[in-house]
Design a protein that fits this description.
Blueprint (H helix, E strand, L loop, with lengths): L12 H10 L2 H7 L2 H8 L1
Length: about 40
């Protein structure tokens, strides 16, 4: 798992936005669980 996602639920809004901008949707789907995807895009 990518180091960016060790504590995805603990990221603040700015950090989440930065992660979203730096990774493609395919990367997210490969690396994140459904819960983590929901947390990131909430």
């Amino acid at each position: 798992m990518c180091h960016h996602f060790e504590a995805i639920a603990e990221l603040d809004a700015d950090e989440r936005e930065e992660v979203l901008e730096s990774h493609s949707a395919d990367e997210f789907e490969d690396e994140l669980s459904d819960e983590e995807l929901e947390a990131l895009t909430a």
